[in-house]
Amino acid sequence: MSSLESNIRRVLDTLLPRIQLRCQSSSQPVILGITGLQGSGKSTWASKIVQLLATEHNLRTVTISLDDLYKTHDDLIAQRNKYPGNKLYRTRGQPGTHDEQLAAQFFKELKGYRGDGELKIPSFDKSKFNGEGDRAPKEQWHTITAKPDVVVFEGWCVGFRPLSAAAVEEKHRLALAGKLPVNTPANHKLEHLLQVNESLKRYCDAFMGPQHFDFMIHIDTEDVRNVYKWRLEQEYKLIEARGTGMKDEEVAAFIDGYMPAYELYLDGLRKGFFDAESGRQVRVVLDKERSVGKVEEL
Asked: HSE-up of 67 (CA within 13 Å, CB side)?
């Protein structure tokens, strides 16, 4: 067994008794959030957890990614045109670039689904429009015909919660003064950060706040600058496999698009997604080499 699989099992075993109890006591599926930094291996964690829950614990498990809830290509273009000065909206990714109505409706239907008929899971095709992406045709969406026991919902900003306008302003001030780890909020106007923050507030109200989850796994690191190294290593592997990929400076620019949110919202997630309720969140802290340094139960 690889050390990665061993660590995944260790974390899953921490939550498993509670997940099983919740499955037995509720008619609704358990919603397990998995959130992690770019390059941390979040997708690998999610797919392995789905496999383990299904094959070793006989729990019917499905997964959905926040990426599958993006707006259509036309709506992404409209979003970009609506805020032409906001660099954070030039590409998909940030809160505000997902279809909030689709997400809220899907999770509402999911929680009420009892295996009566078919339920389709939204899908987004990132290859369309030269990589800008578009929603996949509905006939290509994955279909389930039985009520799932567990739904794994993974995404890079799953677990982030909005700040007050004053707190965003303070983070922006600290970045301008060079007092944050990378200071990327300083690369953006305060009003643009507040636009994303307002979108995140709507997300949390509609489908992504703690009231919509049962458990959360957070893959983190003590030094957020490690993300640049991890994502670069991933790109080198892609280039080795495909023969093409992003240059080093393009990878850094890609991460720069996510880093302002990390610097704004990670502190809140580290304090606990479920506020005073303990035992529902596990924080996995990776070192620079992506080895698990510690596991915290919050």
From this structure: 16
